[in-house]
Design a protein that fits this description.
single chain, 99 residues, mainly beta, OB fold (Dihydrolipoamide Acetyltransferase, E2P), five-stranded mixed β-barrel, two-stranded antiparallel ribbon, 1 helix
């Protein structure tokens, strides 16, 4: 899984039928300091995430399995909205204490 932050959304009027009704969000991986790194990833939101939320993202065939459908063109999916993050016993993120 990848640790990411939701930075945007995407809309599409023309798409594969397997994406009908899917909410598409743009995420960016974050490092241990919660700072964005790397490029953007277009994901299918399976959890109801919103802009600014820290999420867990899976990619590849695991993304397809996460939605329980066989014929979908998913390559990345949000599978969790994170409330807390702990690294080496230290809390580095608490959703309820966001700035």
């Amino acid at each position: 899984m990848k640790l990411c932050i939701v930075v945007g959304r995407a809309d599409s009027s023309v798409k594969h039928p397997g994406l009908d009704g899917a909410k598409l969000l743009v995420v960016q991986e974050i490092d241990g300091s919660l700072k964005p790194q790397g490029g953007f990833i277009l994901t299918v939101d399976t959890q109801g995430a919103g802009i600014g939320e820290v999420v867990a993202v899976i990619t590849g065939s695991a993304a397809i399995r996460s939605v329980g459908k066989g014929d979908v063109p998913y390559d990345a999916a949000i599978v969790a909205i994170l409330d807390h993050l702990f690294v080496n016993g230290t809390q580095i993120y608490n959703k309820n204490q966001e700035a």
